[in-house]
Amino acid sequence: MKKIVSLMLITAILTSILTGCTEEKISIGREVKSQINNLDFNFSVEPETLKFEVESNGVTEKVSEPLEKMKVSNLKDNGDNISWTYLEQEIDVDIVKKENYVDVSIKSSRDEENMFAWPKVKGDGYMLPLNQGKYIPSNDSTWKDYLSDEKMKVIEALSMQFFAVDKREYSLVYIIKNPYNSELVYNTENEIEFTFNHEFPAINEEKEYGFRIYLTEKNPVDVAKTYKNYLIEQGAFKSLAEKAKENSNIEKLYGAPHAYFWDRTVISEENIKWAKLRDSIPEKLRLWIQGLLTTNVEDGSELSLAFEDLDSLDYVDKYTKNRIIKGLSAVLQLKEFYNPEVFTETDKESIRLLNKGIENLNPVELIDLNKRLFKSELGNVVDPIEKWADANTVDVIKDMKDSGLENMWIGLDDWQEGFIKPELVKEANDIGYLFGTYDSYHSIHKPGKEKWETAKFNDTSLYENATVTNKDGNKIEGFQGEGRKLNPTLAMPSVEERVTSILNTGVAFNSWFLDTDGTGEIFDDYSPEHITTEKQDIQARIKRMEYLQKEWNMVVGTEGGNDFANKTIAFAHGIETPSFSWMDKDMGKNKESEYYVGRYYSSNGGVPELFSKQIPIKDKYKKLFLDSNYTIPLYKLVYNDSVITTHWWGWGTLKFKDEISNRMLYEILYNVPPLYHIDKHEWEKHKETIVRHSKVWSNFSKKAITQEMTNFKIMSDDRLVQMTEYGEALSVVANFSKDEFNYQGKIIPGESALIIDGNDNTIYSPEK
Fold first, then answer.
1. Pairing between strand 511-514 and 555-559?
2. Which one of 109, 469, 591, 761 is at 20 to 30 Å from 548 when CA atoms are compared?
3. Nearest 5°: CA angle at 493, between 335 and 367?
4. pLDDT per residue over 566-590, tens digit each?
5. Cα four-point dihedral sign 752, 756, 762, 766
6. From residue 174, how far is each of 15, 119, 127, 129, 693 by CA, in Å?
7. What is the pLDDT of residues 217-260, one digit of tens each?
8. Which of 239-243, 343-347, 387-391, 404-408 has the lowest mean pLDDT?
């Protein structure tokens, strides 16, 4: 049995394959929809197999390959609507003709768990929102190998909730109406194909999934704009301009490179008169510090030995200085540091703080007290405490501003760095930067055995009473197999407690970065006491993002940036270059390999080797994650003027030493903030490169970020020359090849970009 339905035609604008379009706009409320080329078509469906075909301009294609035959009952045909039931599977199918798409709904009538797999798609190629976006030819050997027997969780793997399939003459766009409990299952035995599998969990009362299916010309612009129009129609899109009306600090992101700042030194090398230290440090104080290091500090025994070396060396070498600084910085953060038998001379402020009781001091007050106590014993052998670590922190930030980096987003590994040097955060605020801390509520460790700060919670009952149980009755492990996953619907009191305690110290963060909340790594929780669906998991994560945004006026960012969070977040790390070192032993574990990413360790309290070490990248991963042949700007075509996206923090702009120029070109072409890891030494090492690139990118991005990405074109047969357009007057032509390219009489050298801003033309050639 077949049903044929005629759909309305919307004006055709584009014809070239994988090129671009000139957009017309129609106003829908506050947002503007793109009037793009959704094609007129008829469709036919066979209920017994759910084979679904479309026909446009005489060309017929399959929306879904046929499934195995199933018994059909309750078939109804009302002209614009056809529906039926698969009794044995307890599945109802409903297909409705709409103006420019077909709406397909698939519903389970079974109370217990149920499964259904549809559609089963094949095509010449796929436009998938994997991270920024990928165009994957169905016969590509690299992708066939990568996707072999792969299963991708839809809400996690896809940054936006659609996928597109290239057929001979047009593309099919499938907008996913319910991404939860769904996965893409790939088959690469011949050419790449995949099936969309949906699970109906028994704990979830929502028993329906489905798609809107559109036809477009074969290009990323029409595909992405079809999805963006859908978001606008649903009231699910919010521009940066709208967000900035609620929090003007968001405008500080415009043209702002992103950098993680690393420095845990309470006192720096420049603050100590080393020639005097050996003869001036009281023996009682030295022994007290060494004792604290050996009993209270990880790896403290080795640091303790540095104070022995201080006595034996005629000259205090750099290695010994680093260990002493690291040891002092560790003990000056301890509650146990105060000893009335060691510290007999105290100033008025120290007395005031001691009278409050050490247990009642917040972390900033505690470190301030310990600084004063140490200074009281060392006198003029050390600088006034107000200057401690300035050379490593405040002076670096000032130099960044003075070097022309007008706007910056700066993040910390955790809030403790802000407690150590609140003046750093204040200085960043004063010069107009955004300054935020990393935070996470994803993993929780067993009380008393916490391995990192974010996995520690004052409410110790959470570990047993608020963690996620899978359908087999087992607790889901936390990050890297440590601890458990915390149910976000039960975490909000701890979120409020932690955020309030941090900000009540007076450290003036104006941005907040929430790890994993935008990645789509979500769960059904089968714990009988707190059954939770994936949808409820997402809603709770959004609630805590909104809490930071609305209650504390924070500019909120997250790892991942999958678009369920688009209305709340302002920026995201990971969409452009995701984490993938876990896929390769040489990168993740083999410390002898040139590809090894590095340890999460710093000898001087600055940038860990994991972020500062520059490495090459294997061709396989270069093709999968960096190659401009495969990358298409699906996310930017939808969200350029809504969510600012950059790389995962492990893959900063300078990380891959054989790809630096290409990544800089990519950052211009796609309007992607450069991402760096900075301490005093890394800043001095890379300052010229950072400033040169950031100035060009920033001047361009300040204009591009306020515009919609309106076009994307492949300009050469080898796909190495590409163009993006922003609004009506701003565009970039990036030449990733080594040969020069002639664009409308303008010669673009190899590995360079032409920036066109109205009548102004600028050639930019990155330098490593």
1. parallel
2. 469
3. 20
4. 999 999 999 999 999 999 999 999 9
5. negative
6. 20, 10, 11, 12, 39
7. 999 999 999 999 999 999 999 999 999 999 999 999 999 999 99
8. 343-347
Q: Which of 445, 414, 422, 451 is nearest to 362 (CA)?
A: 422
CA 333 to chain centre: 31
By CB neighbour count within 10 A (0-12 exposed, 13-18 middle, 19+ buried), where does 449 fall?
exposed
**Position of tokens 């990036």?**
734
Under a CB-based contact definition with an 8 Å cutoff, are residues 517 and 464 in contact? no
Which residues are paired to 34 by β-bridges? 25
Contact 595, 632 (CB under 8 A): no
- Rounded Cα distance, 9 and 225, in Å: 17
Tokens 């109205």, residue located: 758
Q: Which residue has the tokens 């922190």?
A: 393
Report the relative pairing of strands 258-261 and 675-678 from DSSP bridges. Answer: parallel
| Residue 448 DSSP symbol | T
**Rounded-to-integer distance, Cα 175 and Cα 164, Å:** 9
- Is the CB of residue 655 less than 8 Å from the CB of residue 665? no
Q: How far apart are CA 220 and CA 18, in angstroms?
A: 6
CB-based contacts of 171: which residues, under 8 Å, 6+ apart?
127, 164, 165, 215, 216, 217, 218, 219, 222, 223
Contact (Cβ atoms closer than 8 angstroms) between residue 576 and residue 524: no
* Cα–Cα distance measured from residue 658 to residue 324, given in angstroms and rounded to the nearest whole number: 37
Main-chain dihedrals φ then ψ at residue 220, nearest 5 degrees: -65, -30
Q: For the chain, give the number of residues.
A: 768
Tokens in use for 365?
A: 């007050």
Whole-angstrom Cα distance, residue 432 to residue 301?
Answer: 42
What angle do helix axes 318-331 and 300-312 make, rounded to 10 degrees? 130
CA-nearest of 306, 326, 395 to 604 is 326
- Beta-bridge partner residues of 176: 211
